[in-house]
Specification:
26% strand; 2 domains; alpha+beta; 5-stranded mixed sheet; 9 helices; globular; Fructose-1,6-Bisphosphatase, Chain A, domain 1; 270 residues; D-Maltodextrin-Binding Protein, domain 2
Length: 270
C-alpha cells in the first residue's frame, strides 16, 4: 500500500527499533537456559514469565522516552494511546513456550504501524544472535553474528512441492476446525517442520522456507513480520487473502506459492 512516509521519521524509528529489540533480547537471555523459571498462565491459558514482562517494560519505557507522542501496543501490558500517526507493536518473547523449554528459536519483535499499515519491523533472535529487519521502501536485511550484513530475499521456487512449509503448532489447526488445511499443506510440501513463531517468518524472508502458516495470530505476532516478508519480495495475508496484520491468522510466503496456499484453505474450509 503506497504511503507518504517521511524518510527521517521512519529511518529514525527503524534504527531505534533495531537497538531496542536487541536490548530487550539481551534482557531475556538473563533467564534463558538458566534453569527452572516460574511460569504463570494468562487468561487465555498462554504462558508468561518474568522475562516477558521485564523485556516489555524495557521496550515501553524506552519508546515512551524517545517517542512520547507515539502509541504503544504490547502483548503483556496492553495499549498506551498516542498523538502521532505512529504506533509501536511489540512482543518481548514471541515463542514463550520455546523459551521456557530452553529452545533458542524464540524472538523479540518490534513493529511500527502508521495509518493502519505495518511500515517497519525487527525480528531478533537473542539466543542465535540473528536478526531480520525492514522498512517500507528500504528493503529487508539479514544479520547474523560474525557475518556481513546482507539483503534478505525470499526463495524463487514456484510450488509447495519444491519447498519447506513451516508452522508453529499442529494442534492449533485442529482446534480451529482446520485440521484438513494442515494435512493438505503437509501433503503438498516437499518438507514440513514446526520451526514456527517468528522464526518461521524469518526463514521465509531469508529464502529458507517457502511459506509459514499460522492458524492463530495476534497483532503483536504479525506487525513486525509483515514489512520484513514483503520487503524481502514475499507476501503476507490472513487466511482470506487480506493484506492485514490483524486478521487473527497469517500466511507469510515467497509470494509465488501464496495463491496455492490460499486455494488449499478455501477448499478445505468451505
Amino acid at each position: 500500500m503506497p504511503l507518504d512516509l517521511p524518510d527521517d521519521e521512519l529511518d529514525a524509528r527503524l534504527d531505534t527499533a533495531r537497538r531496542l529489540a536487541r536490548a530487550a533480547g539481551t534482557t531475556t537471555l538473563q533467564w534463558f537456559g538458566a534453569g527452572k523459571i516460574e511460569v504463570e498462565r494468562k487468561a487465555d491459558d498462554s504462558p508468561v514469565t518474568v522475562a516477558d514482562r521485564q523485556a516489555e517494560e524495557l521496550l515501553r519505557e524506552q519508546i515512551a522516552r524517545e517517542y512520547p507522542d507515539d502509541a504503544i501496543l504490547g502483548e503483556e501490558f496492553g495499549e498506551a494511546s498516542g498523538r502521532s500517526p505512529y504506533r509501536w507493536i511489540v512482543d518481548p518473547i514471541d515463542g514463550t513456550k520455546s523459551f521456557i523449554c530452553g529452545v533458542p528459536l524464540y524472538a523479540t519483535l518490534v513493529g511500527i504501524e502508521r495509518g493502519g499499515v505495518a511500515v517497519a519491523g525487527v525480528i531478533h533472535l537473542p539466543a542465535l544472535d540473528e536478526t531480520a529487519y525492514a522498512a517500507r521502501g528500504r528493503g529487508a536485511w539479514h544479520e547474523v553474528a560474525g557475518r556481513p550484513l546482507r539483503p534478505a530475499r525470499v526463495a524463487s521456487l514456484e510450488s509447495l512441492a519444491d519447498g519447506l512449509f513451516v508452522t508453529s503448532q499442529v494442534d492449533t489447526f485442529f482446534q480451529r476446525g482446520a485440521g484438513a488445511v494442515y494435512q493438505e499443506l503437509e501433503r503438498r510440501a516437499a518438507i514440513t517442520r514446526t520451526w514456527g513463531d517468528a522464526y518461521g517468518y524469518l526463514l521465509v524472508a531469508t529464502g529458507r522456507a517457502a511459506v509459514m502458516v499460522d492458524a492463530a495470530m495476534s497483532p503483536w505476532d504479525a506487525a513486525a513480520v509483515v514489512p520484513i516478508v514483503e520487503e524481502a519480495g514475499g507476501r503476507f495475508t490472513d487466511w482470506s487473502g487480506a493484506a492485514t496484520f490483524d486478521g487473527g491468522n497469517g500466511i507469510g510466503s515467497n509470494g509465488r506459492v501464496h495463491d496455492e496456499v490460499l486455494s488449499v484453505i478455501a477448499s478445505k474450509m468451505g
